[in-house]
Protein: Transporter
Organism: Deinococcus radiotolerans
Amino acid sequence: MKRTLTLILALSAAPAAAQTAPTSLTLGSAVTRAVTLGVDVTTARANLQKAQANLRAVRADPTSIITTLTQAEQDVAAQTAALNAAKLTAAQSAISGYVQAYEGAQSAALAQAQVALSDRQLKIAQARLAARVATSLDVSRAQNALNGDRQDLASAQASLPVLEATLARTLNLPAGTDLKLSAPGDAPKLSVTLAALQSGLDKRLPALVQAANGVTLAGLQVKLADNDYTPTRTLEDARTALANAQRGLEDGTRAAQTGVRDAYRAAQDAQARVTVARDAAVNAQEALRNAQARLKAGTAAAVEVQQAQLQAQQAALSVQQAVDGVWRALAGLGVAAGQDVTGLVN
């Protein structure tokens, strides 16, 4: 009976343990989940499959006319571009949500360290007041600083569950999922040229694919109307439609190329900022080592070391934010160019 009861208790506890176990994620696994199970991606994939099935049916039908076949082929091209765009957009959302949640946890840890320092500074001010080498105003200022830092900590801690819930929703995870996020890691260097990303946009961006399809179909209409048994007016209208479609494609292409150029420059700027942040972090670590050496030599107070530790932690967070900025910029460039440059989208 005792063994049976033990087994029952173990089995009843197993689901609860499974529910509370955190879901471990890396940036790569988060993006993979987003581009595989995302709602918009799933819808786009279904639309592509539908278009492909329709094209097979049209090709198999001996009565299909050239315009019907062309439109079916163009629909497959359009839905292929739409699926690719959906994946890139899903990856962008996953990357943004992931780095925000990870930064949120780091910011909360930094805020905790700031509270600890402010609390120590308040105690120092109180001790100095008792020794009559400080005023009550000094204590009041230290108390106000501590109160502000505590509020910042509470805000950082309160925002973290919201950021994690947003990420879980982006990844189509159940509400309330406990996430355990690994460090995003360094983003890849840009290995593709701007010219390469600006080339072939009419084959990758859904809006331009639609515009290019419109040009192709309008050109076909001109060809079909250019004969001696079709009214001249019909041919003229077809030529006008073709000219309008070509202008629309040209305007859209120029705008898209500008968007790619701006996103490319943003990615380059983000990568440069990582170097600046890392140099600052090296300096902060050197200042910390100096403070520790001075403390050991008896020429610095412990609070100075604590201040240096906080500054080093702030510098490390700045590096992380700069790295995350590169991830965001690369994701944005991928969406603008219709081509993954993060290396995370399959």
In short: The mean pLDDT is 93. The longest helix spans residues 232-297. The first strand starts at residue 23 and ends at 25. The domain at 25-178 is CATH 1.20.1600.10 (Outer membrane efflux proteins (OEP)).
